[in-house]
Write a structure and sequence with these properties.
The complex is a heterodimer of chains A (347) and B (409). With 347 residues, chain A is an alpha/beta fold. In chain A, 36% of the residues lie in helices and 16% in strands. Chain A has two domains: 255 residues, Rossmann fold, CATH 3.40.50.10540; 81 residues, 2-Layer Sandwich (formyl-coa transferase, domain 3), CATH 3.30.1540.10. Chain A contains 14 helices and twelve strands. In chain A, the strands form three sheets. A six-stranded parallel β-sheet of chain A has the order 3-2-1-4-5-6, with helices on both faces. In chain A, strands 7-8-9 form a three-stranded antiparallel β-sheet, covered by helices on one side. In chain A, β4, α4 and β5 form a beta-alpha-beta unit. In chain A, α1 crosses α6 and α9 crosses α12. Chain B has 409 residues and is of the alpha/beta class. In chain B, 37% of the residues lie in helices and 13% in strands. In chain B, α1 packs across α7. The relative contact order of chain B is 0.15. Classes of the chains: A alpha/beta (347), B alpha/beta (409). Chains A and B meet through α2, α5, α6, β6 and α7 of A and α1, α2, α6, α7 and β8 of B.
């Protein structure tokens, strides 16, 4: 039986619903007047998030309650704990209910006003990004919302699989804290606060962004790749250079090594560098423009982009889920199957 | 040996993941009640002597007696697991592993695209042992395609996702997050993929091969920008500004490297900000504010730089404006919200607090959690309880050098 999912809220709710739509669920999204400012146009956000869903523009509380009570899964994203309560979230009888809020449903900040940059700052990300002598950088995009949503999707499916009726309280702040790399343990266990160092990963050298003839490339040379890096650079004598014998020494002599790498890469093109990296098997990525990402031969060979089949829109290429099951991309058509006459899921 | 209480009770996972993305994804599943056996290589936690202090320090005192068991970063990622340390390159080790596969629900690994196949443990071999197995593979660039044999780590995948076009101080000053941010993207999606495949298996009774690419996780994240680009409005890097909010930035506060994040999400918040900070034009709409962004930012800076980030945050929040401190590590532990919700949990050895589970629901409780096990600590239990091996069988494997409980000399 196809599961019935009711989705209410912004970009986290939208992404969670997107995962359900691609898994074959019947997702009805309640369209709201405003779900907060996005990092892309409304048209792009809608094309990315809402393909395969049915959209209902209604603020009719009774209708929403009727849909919620008939749904198997309720996904709600609210700006604060109080806003969630005002939606009568607790009154709905949906078997599995997910509440996504910035700070969770309890605690002294559960009604704080939030935005993506505020959450990323409070969650420890912003402190670590950008140059040490300048303002830290906030991560652009909807990382916060999409990550929270994917966790919510996991929790919902776990409950459904177990046949458990549950209310899930998922705070975005805690999601960020849970996804920290080593910030918290480094502070607790090494007594050192992690700091920002521009694009330099810092703890393995060289790991940085380097300019080349037509753009930028990123090297991430963990110690086991030092030997092949010297081959890649066509400077095998670096293996014997006393400044660079170990990662600790390379950290001490970071600037000298960066200068050598930078000088070698500067006249080369991204394509030349990328090809040479593959031949030498070193971890290297090139900075791709959006056009280059869309035309990337690897992504094309893997059929990563779905092509819309909607009748009245351009054939956009839409990024699919980053996972596939049994080789299937869980694609859905672009654009909502709009209907003001959503058939109710009457029990 | 069952997992902690949770909706995934009864699900058995063999976890062969390493570094960050894989272990983090499995941690969410373990926190939800799955019974997880970490299948570890003898050198999986490093050698007997570490050349230097690990990046996250040591759990407990410096210079620990068993450094491979006290690596704080590893420990943080591996609660609620059993450790089974086996040499899969030996026939007896591989056979024992395949027997575990027969009674498991999920196998998950994040090696290179060819590593498991080269050991004779690819999906085909595992499905032969257990047709219902969910096999999750997480190679950096996926298992197919022209880049599939490339070496991939989070920081090198990031520039190929499109994100670097947007992250930086401006279009000519791109930056890498230097946080390997594609790893946590892959981590949460691996957990999502596992439960989706399990549910599918629950319905069809068939196993599944799940493939997750670190690279595609990043490109998915850039999805709205990629669509905008196709629609004719290519997004550009704006530093700390936002295309649909103004003001939106990071502002200096009192003290060395102390900052505040602030955003006016709507007109109401802007008007409230005008009531706090002198010289701002209350009637300005978004477009006008974007045009005057330099001047507005200057006035906000003049206000924030004379206050602590905590004080400024409280004042702005009291007026209904989205604002908060840029927290460093120490601030995270001191945060009243994290403390109120008991997010950091001191259950590990030496009461070291580690990040908890953001998923709150009835029936989940961190007091049941188990510490990260020592290497090979559960070799005996896993073989006896999952496979019914007797003491003599287990001793034979130990004597043959197939099982380990410390890295080899």
């Amino acid at each position: 039986m196809v599961e019935r999912v009711l989705e209410i809220g912004g970009y986290a709710a939208g992404y969670c619903g997107r995962l359900f739509a691609r898994a074959g669920a019947d997702v009805v999204r309640i369209q709201m007047d405003s779900v907060g400012p996005a990092w892309a146009s409304d048209e792009a956000m809608s094309a990315f998030l809402h393909g395969g869903k049915r959209l209902l523009s209604s603020a009719d509380g009774q209708l929403i309650a009727e849909l919620a009570n008939a749904a198997d899964i309720l996904i709600v994203e609210a700006q604060t704990a109080n806003a969630l309560s005002a939606m009568d979230f607790d009154g709905f009888s949906t078997p599995v209910k997910l509440a996504m809020t910035p700070f969770g449903r309890t605690g002294p900040k559960c009604n704080w006003n939030a935005s993506g940059n505020v959450m990323l700052a409070m969650g420890g990300y912003t402190h670590l990004m950008g140059d040490p002598d300048r303002a830290p950088l906030s991560l652009p995009g909807h990382y916060l919302e999409f990550q929270t949503a994917a966790l919510g999707y996991t929790a919902i499916n776990a409950c459904r699989m177990a046949g458990q009726h549950k209310v899930i309280d998922l705070g975005m702040f805690e999601t960020l804290l849970a996804l920290s790399q080593f910030t918290s343990v480094r502070w607790q266990c090494a007594g050192e606060q992690r700091e920002r160092h521009g694009s330099d990963f810092w703890y393995v050298v060289p790991s940085n962004l380097f300019v080349c003839a037509d753009g930028w490339v990123y090297l991430n040379i963990v110690p086991s790749f030092w030997d092949p890096l010297t081959v890649f650079l066509e400077r095998p004598e670096l293996l014997l250079d006393s400044r660079f014998l170990t990662n600790d020494l390379r950290m001490e002599n970071r600037e000298a090594l960066h200068a050598i790498v930078g000088e070698i890469l500067a006249p080369l093109s991204k394509a030349e560098i990328f090809a040479r990296a593959q031949a030498c098997r070193i971890p290297l990525g090139v900075v791709q423009s959006f056009a280059e990402v869309l035309d990337d031969p690897h992504l094309q060979a893997r059929s990563f982009f779905a092509h819309s089949n909607a009748r009245d829109v351009q054939p956009w290429r839409i990024p699919e889920n980053p996972y596939c099951i049994n080789g299937e991309r869980r694609t859905v058509g672009l654009g909502p199957i709009t209907s003001e006459q959503v058939p109710l899921w009457r029990a | 040996m069952a997992g902690v209480n949770g909706p995934l009770n009864g699900i058995k996972i063999l976890d062969l993941t390493h570094v960050w993305a894989g272990p983090l994804g499995v941690r969410f599943l373990a926190d939800l009640g799955a019974e997880v056996v970490k299948v570890e290589a003898p050198y999986g936690r490093g050698p007997q002597q570490f050349p230097s202090t690990p990046i996250g320090g040591w759990i407990g005192k410096a210079d620990p007696e068993e450094p491979w068991n006290r690596n704080a970063l590893f420990t943080k990622l591996h609660r609620n697991r059993q450790s089974f340390c086996v040499d899969l390159k030996q026939a007896d080790g591989r056979n024992a592993f395949l027997e575990l596969v027969r009674v498991a629900d999920v196998v998950i690994e994040n090696f290179s695209a060819t590593a498991m196949r080269s050991m004779g443990l690819g999906y085909d071999a595992l499905a032969l042992a257990n047709p219902q197995i969910i096999y999750v593979s997480m190679p950096g660039f996926g298992a197919t395609g022209p880049y599939s044999e490339r070496v991939a780590f989070g920081p090198v995948v990031e520039p190929m996702s499109g994100l670097t076009n947007m992250l930086g101080y401006g279009p000519d000053e791109p930056r890498n997050s230097a946080l390997a941010i594609m790893d946590p993207v892959a981590a949460v999606h691996s957990a999502a993929a596992v439960v989706e495949a399990l549910r599918q298996c629950q319905i069809t009774g068939a196993g599944a091969y799940v493939e997750l690419s670190l690279h595609e996780g990043g490109v998915t994240y850039s999805g709205p920008w990629l669509l905008d680009h196709q629609m004719g409005h290519t997004p550009v890097c704006m530093g700390n500004r936002h295309p649909n909010m103004a003001p939106h930035g990071i502002y200096p506060c009192l003290g060395q490297d102390q900052w505040l994040a602030l955003a006016c999400v709507d007109q109401m918040q802007w008007r409230a900000l005008c009531g706090l900070i002198p010289g701002l034009a209350q009637e300005s709409d978004l477009q006008q504010r974007q045009k005057a962004a330099d001047d507005i930012d200057r006035k906000i800076r003049a206000w924030t730089q004379n206050q602590s980030k905590a004080q400024a945050s409280e004042l702005l929040q009291a007026s209904g404006i989205a604002a908060g401190p840029v927290n460093g590590a120490a601030d995270l532990f001191a945060d009243t919200q994290a403390q109120f919700r008991n997010f950091f949990v001191p259950y590990e050895q030496f009461d070291t607090p580690v990040p908890g589970n953001p998923i709150h629901m009835a029936g989940l409780a961190s007091h049941q959690w188990t510490q990260c096990p020592d290497l090979g600590a559960n070799n005996h239990d896993v073989l006896s309880q999952w496979l019914g091996y007797g003491d003599a069988q287990i001793s034979a494997l130990e004597d043959a050098g197939v099982l380990f409980n410390r890295p080899p000399d």
